[in-house]
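Hi team,

Below is the intake form for TetR family transcriptional regulator from Amycolatopsis japonica. Please confirm the fields before the structure is written into the shared record.

FORM ID: S-0412
PROTEIN: TetR family transcriptional regulator
ORGANISM: Amycolatopsis japonica
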Amino acid sequence: MTLTTKDRLVRAAAELLREGGREALSTRAVSAAAGVQAPTLYRIFGDKDGLLDAVATYGFKSYLEGKHALGETDDPVGDLRRGWDLHVEFGLQQPAFYMLMYGEPRVREARREADAILRRIVGRIAEAGRLRVPVEQAAQLVHATGMGVILSFLASPPDQRDPDLIVAAREHVIAAITTDSADEASDIPSRAIALKAALEKEPGDVLTPAEHAMLAEWLDRLAR
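The structure came back. Fields below:
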């Protein structure tokens, strides 16, 4: 298959990223590795951030495919566990791409998709009446804990990494945000969270947009 100039630039940048990290991705180095002139890079990607977005998408392609391949089961908490394991595995196996995605203030498009998948899983837990805290807070806590585990492992020599820590951290955060069953989540905050998740999924036309916004605000207060 003949590669386009854009493909050559992205693959050259991806290889430089793997070998030398983020610092290796100068426009000059990428252009030279792809065998093109620097103006060509800017013409295709607009600027360096455009190139980095393309590289992040390229690197995260297999991860996102894996996320989608997990599918959905009748157990959203189990789905969250499997998603966590896939996320941590990718971060440890592809640290350069992971840091490009999560180690910078700029949020790249591939990360937006990954974040949306996580939020959708957490939303399904809320719909099942098993979420203790608001959806956004739960999603942020899951992500922050997973990222903390990955960064901690990457900063440690391989022989000092305890794989049991991954499972312990996963189960700790799941216990913090979920209940064992919907029957346990009978308090007002959990019911408010479940109702908001249901309304977001099927808003209907009984309430006006302004009324939806007001109800969502009230439910958030109750959830807190």
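SUMMARY LINE: The mean pLDDT is 85.

Thanks, M.
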